[in-house]
Please model this.
Amino acid sequence: MGQFEWGGQPHRRFNPLTKEWVLVSSQRTQRPWQGQVELTSAEAALSFDPQCYLCPGNARAGGRKNPHYTSTFTFDNDFAALRPDTPTGELRDGELLQAESEAGQCRVVCFTPRHDLTLARMSVREIKSVVDTWCEEFSQLTSQPNVRSIQIFENRGAMMGCSNPHPHGQIWANESVPDELAREVATQQEYFARHNSSLLEDYLRLEMKKQERMVCANEEFAVVVPFWAVWPYETLLISRRRIASLPELQEDERNGLAQILQEITIRYDNLFKTSFPYTMGFHQRPTDSTAAPGFHFHAHYYPPLLRSATVRKFMVGYELLAMPQRDITPELAAKQLREVPDRHYMESEQPLASSNIPKD
Ligand SMILES: [Zn+2]
Ligand SMILES: [Zn+2]
Model:
């Protein structure tokens, strides 16, 4: 460990106007970009792409070669936004200029060796392997020094800034608890202190009773369009049993999670008969297990599409400056997601016209 460099090493800066932090990792600009490549339908069907740095046996940036993996494959991101060997640094220039070094780890999880699949096109058994891998990674990273929170997420589709169509997700382990998670830890803790039950447990019970915003459910999990959804087809995936992190899932719950992940992504794809772009990720307790009473494991899906495979919602002007705004009601979004088939559409079917989707 040498001297911390503010110009080139990962750190977070404090915004005194909002009291929020921003992660600065300028060393990432060299990362390869394979996301904008427009695929022809013949190319999209390739199960192996010799140019893809995630396919089995191919070389990655820096010359490392992927093994000939047959299930999931996990490795340290070659262009990590966070690094475990980041030296400690702190800047306190009065009240207004505050920053701290941020150590951590960035992992990449390939969901399958098949270049042409997505979670919506994988079997429940294959998705279960991904769930098992996430569980192991969470446990392994929790045991690392200086890891206080772990964010598992997937960016799906070039529209969401995904740098490679090969099915994969990421795991960022942080030295700090990011603002988004910290807020949800605090609200759940506060609710738990008042009610002695978890906020999401009570919320799910309410939604199951009302049946207005439910999308799908199995014995172990349920998916709803939350009452307060921001993105047009935003959903919240909640465990039926209150647990706080992935490793607490029992075997049948892991299967249940695999099944519901497959179902919600199929429903998304069927909505506009397209490979539906989204950002999804799990919210889990910070690694200090005593720090989050009432915390309830869940996942958020934030998809940008509004009424066709190409028309998307932007969060711009008023949304950036004032508050989020949405175009269709959460109740209508839930109804549409409920009513599409739970079997994946066939490639031969044409993309859905926007005519039957209400305009704003
Ligand atoms: Zn690939
Ligand atoms: Zn959350």
Confidence is low (pLDDT under 50) at residues 35-43, 353-360. The longest strand covers residues 149-156. The pocket of zinc ion (ligand 1) is lined by residues 49, 52, 54-55, 115, 166 (CB under 6 Å). The radius of gyration is 21 Å.
